[in-house]
Amino acid sequence: MEQPSMSYIRVFAPATVANVVCGFDVLGFAVDTPGDEVEMFVVSQPGVRIRAIYGDEGRLPLDPEKNTVSASVLGYLQQIGREDVGIEIILHKHMPVGSGLGSSAASTVAGLFAIHQLMGRPLSNVELLKLAMAGEQLACGQGHADNVAPALLGGFVLIRSYHPLDVIQLPVPQSLVCALLHPHIEIQTRDARKILKPYVPLSDVTTQMGNLAGFVSALYKGDLALLSRCMQDVIIEPVRSILIPEYQTMKTIALSAGALGFGISGSGPSVFALCEDSATAHTILSRLQAHLQQHQIASDIFISPINRQGPRLLAAEEKTSKS
Length: 323
Ligand code: HSE
Prior knowledge:
Layout: E1 6-18, E2 27-43, E3 47-54, H1 68-79, E4 86-92, H2 103-118, H3 125-140, H4 148-153, E5 156-161, E6 166-170, E7 177-183, H5 189-194, H6 202-221, H7 224-230, H8 237-240, H9 247-256, E8 261-264, E9 271-275, H10 278-294, E10 299-305, E11 312-318
Parallel strand pairs: 3-4
Antiparallel strand pairs: 1-2, 1-11, 2-4, 2-5, 5-6, 7-9, 7-10, 8-9
The structure holds L-homoserine.
């Protein structure tokens, strides 16, 4: 069979904020920074292998069937009937595992975007998304889409339904800036899911539905005051916030410094604030970081506009020059 015309590609895929306070498992957005990078080499020996992983402190599996990037690439090649192709992967992690920044999703999407470009883009976005969700299943034990969908599509994304999969890209208000803080503790998504209550009071469902619908309306209207009012979570935050040291104080600090809203990024421990400008984001993050330092908790901070593009190509080489 014909081999890919490119022999090498390097791509970036963004970190994501899942749940966005009021949309557990159904809402997420992408940021420009941080993000992971994947280098992919076409080689003559069929199969998918990991050459190296940098930035993971040796924690991620190198076994191609256990690593979410290689397993997803393998799934992609199986789906298009091209298991004859040989692929080697280098993964550059720029965010920690178990950070709540959509770390596994960024790597998975980078890998799928890379193989998709190499193979001439034969699949649709929905097919790519299903493969990425299988990667999340492998990484977290649950194939939720609120990280992989925005990582793949960019912007704000609503997962209207999982069965059948129905994903809606939402408008991004111009001025929104995201402030992210990653405290140096680790929470595994599978653990943060186990502590959630399977049933919630009807009155809480009503509150949450109002806020989610209002949030989506706010994006369409570009109404940041409405968006701010909707950033409340009466179901997940009360349970998960106890896993994050100083959470309530951080929330008070962020809101009093002008955040439109503040919450847990994905399953935590990272927290985020949506802001109207970068100056507010800077103020919030420096106050939060200083507060955590008083409690001997180190942290990383990121300020980013909302990423509208999803993954992007960083470099590529045609077949004759490299293999
Ligand atoms: N919606 C998922 C959760 C996102 O909150 O468990 C994990 O990043």
